[in-house]
Structures are given as structure tokens and as C-alpha cells.
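Q: I'm building a small set of examples for a reading group on sequence design. Run inverse folding on the following structure and report the sequence directly after it, with nothing in between.
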């Protein structure tokens, strides 16, 4: 997945843009708004002719950007692990540059205030969003210490189903057949990936201790549920409170920057020879390579924004689940740890649940 905070923000933002564009296309006018989450849209008179003249590359550019974004994120996480660098250490520069760039954009370019004009309820929602977004991503990165990347990514993507379930509970929506089927496939997929000993006595992955695997499973499950809560809180902030998207991203980035920095400082302090440890870590080509690889995630964030401008959110959700496929390919080609058939079957089940949910949402929107 791209595991990328921007992805979920843009999902709801661009859904809103899609409805505005559709509503205003009959009047052939320019849409103006003061909301930072909505960009000006120009309706073109000869829209049919323009659409038909688009090249094949232009038509599938959104899908291509989403695929490239997923590849960047999965590859950066995989490379960092193979270089034997802790992900939390390698991510410091990524979150530093993200925080600085957003601060410059907000204060020097747009002249936004941070929290001075926010209401108390909005601040509470911002806190909930910040807590679950940061802990979700931290738990994903920590989970990689206990699980192979394909298994971790598979469980993380159950977030798509949990989001639908939690939202249905909050908004008191009746569960649909597609939701029930997706939940069943998701639970079955997680069981196949986890491979508990009381069910699969001989099928558990030999290269990883069972107790360590169970810890990783619970960490990954928390990450998926926390990301679901993050998505729902994003929707509330963007739709109900009209919060600035840049503010949501800024608080996410700055919190994770300080968390990763504190993690590095604590490790240095606890080491017997602190100066030598820090020197060996930072002045090392493996650390530089891992840090540069993690900077690819920022490129992935930009690409996923471009993808949502060109393609329907449900389609992008399906394409983003290619993270699972990329992680399986990378692990089985470049490492000695191979995925067994049960893990692969579990990944297929989770991918099927994502496909069912996304296509169901797409069909529902097209009927409107």
C-alpha cells in the first residue's frame, strides 16, 4: 500500500470533487471555492469529443501512477529491511522534509493559521486522527520486525473491509451481502496468513518462531483497524469541519518526525559508546541508501494524488492493493524466505475482499 497518509485524505476529497464536477458539467462554468480541499474545475463544452481524443496512455495514467506509488512504497520498505537498517531510523529524513515542506506551504505561501480558527470538536477529531494515523503507521513499521512483508501487507490491507464495517456501525447502515462476503473472506484470509498452530500444526512458517509470528499478527491487525479509524476521522474533518488537508498531513508528519527522532536518541543514549554508535549508523552507506529509499515514499504521495485526479477512487483502491503482489514478488525473488501456499491463499482471499468492496462501491456510485 502504499501506506501513505495522503491516499486516504485524497480519497474523500476527490470523491467530493467528482460530485461537484458532475453536478456543474451542465452549466459549462468554472467552479470557484475557498475550500483548500477543492481545486478549481473547468467544464469543457465539447467534453465528449475531448474524452474520445484521449490517448490510451492518458486514459490509464491514473492506474499507472497508483501502481508506481505502490511500487515505490513497498520497494522502499523492502530495501530498508534488506540493508539491515531499522525503518524508524531510516524514516527520519522523510518525515523531516515532509514537515518542512508543508510548513513552508502553509505559513509562507498560503498563510494558514494552524489551530487558531478550529473549534473544540474539530480539535478533538484532529487529536483522534493524529493518534490513530501515527500509531497505525508505527505499528506497521514495527510489525515488519516480526512478520514477512507479504503477510504484514496482506493483514494491513484488511483495513479496507474494517473501514466499511466501522462506518456502517457508526452511521447505522444495514450490512450488505457484499460487505458480509468481504468480511468472511478477510477473516479467512487472516487465518490462512496467521496459520495458528491449533489449526495448522504443520503448516506454520519454519523460518519464523510461532510466538514471534503471533505478535506480528496482532500488531498488523491493530495497524489495519487504526488506519480504518483514521480514514473515518479524515472524512469527518474534511466533510463536516472543512479542515485544511495540509493541516492534517502536517500534524501527522511532525509527530512521526519527533517519534522517529526520539527513537534514535534513545538508542544512541542506551548504547555503551554513544558517539561511536551514532557515527557508525549515520556515516554508513547502508543508512544513506535506506534513507534515500524512504524518500521514495514522498514521491509516492505525489503520484497517488495525481492518480486520484485521473481515476475513480474505487479503482485506485483496487490498484493500490498491488502492494501485496509486489511484496510477494520481492520476498520470493530476493530473499531465502519463501511464502508457503497457505500464506499465498490468504493473500488471494484478502485481495478478493478488497475487489468485492471496491466494485460494490463503484457500482453504487455509478447508479446515482
Amino acid at each position: 500500500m502504499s501506506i501513505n497518509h495522503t491516499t486516504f485524505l485524497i480519497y474523500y476529497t476527490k470523491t467530493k470533487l467528482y460530485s461537484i464536477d458532475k453536478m456543474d458539467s451542465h452549466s459549462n462554468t468554472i467552479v470557484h471555492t475557498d475550500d483548500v480541499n477543492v481545486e478549481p474545475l473547468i467544464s469543457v463544452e465539447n467534453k465528449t469529443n475531448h474524452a474520445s481524443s484521449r490517448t490510451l496512455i492518458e486514459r490509464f495514467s491514473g492506474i499507472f501512477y497508483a501502481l508506481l506509488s505502490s511500487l515505490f512504497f513497498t520497494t522502499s520498505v523492502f530495501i530498508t529491511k534488506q540493508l539491515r537498517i531499522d525503518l524508524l531510523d531510516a524514516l527520519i529524513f522523510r518525515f523531516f522534509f515532509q514537515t518542512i515542506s508543508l510548513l513552508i506551504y502553509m505559513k509562507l505561501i498560503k498563510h494558514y493559521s494552524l489551530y487558531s480558527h478550529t473549534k473544540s470538536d474539530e480539535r478533538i477529531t484532529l487529536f483522534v486522527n493524529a493518534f490513530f494515523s501515527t500509531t497505525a503507521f508505527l505499528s506497521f513499521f514495527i510489525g515488519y520486525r516480526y512478520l514477512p512483508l507479504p503477510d504484514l501487507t496482506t493483514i494491513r490491507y484488511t483495513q479496507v473491509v474494517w473501514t466499511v464495517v466501522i462506518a456502517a456501525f457508526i452511521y447505522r447502515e444495514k450490512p450488505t451481502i457484499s460487505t458480509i462476503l468481504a468480511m468472511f473472506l478477510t477473516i479467512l484470509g487472516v487465518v490462512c496468513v496467521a496459520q495458528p498452530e491449533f489449526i495448522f500444526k504443520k503448516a506454520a512458517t519454519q523460518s519464523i518462531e510461532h510466538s514471534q509470528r503471533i505478535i506480528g499478527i496482532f500488531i498488523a491487525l491493530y495497524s489495519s483497524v487504526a488506519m480504518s479509524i483514521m480514514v473515518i476521522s479524515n472524512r469527518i474533518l474534511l466533510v463536516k469541519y472543512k479542515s485544511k488537508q495540509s493541516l492534517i498531513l502536517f500534524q501527522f508528519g511532525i509527530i512521526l518526525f519527533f517519534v522517529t527522532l526520539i527513537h534514535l536518541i534513545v538508542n544512541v543514549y542506551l548504547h555503551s559508546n554513544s558517539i561511536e554508535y551514532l557515527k557508525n549508523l549515520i556515516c554508513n552507506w547502508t543508512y544513506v541508501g535506506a534513507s534515500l529509499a524512504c524518500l521514495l515514499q514522498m514521491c509516492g504521495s505525489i503520484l497517488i494524488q495525481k492518480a486520484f485526479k485521473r481515476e475513480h477512487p474505487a479503482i485506485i483502491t483496487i490498484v493500490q492493493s498491488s502492494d501485496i503482489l509486489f511484496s510477494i514478488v520481492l520476498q520470493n525473488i530476493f530473499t531465502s524466505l519463501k511464502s508457503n501456499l497457505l500464506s499465498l491463499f490468504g493473500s488471494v482471499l484478502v485481495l478478493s475482499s478488497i475487489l468485492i468492496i471496491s466494485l460494490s462501491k463503484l457500482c453504487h456510485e455509478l447508479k446515482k
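Strands lie at 30-31, 41-42.
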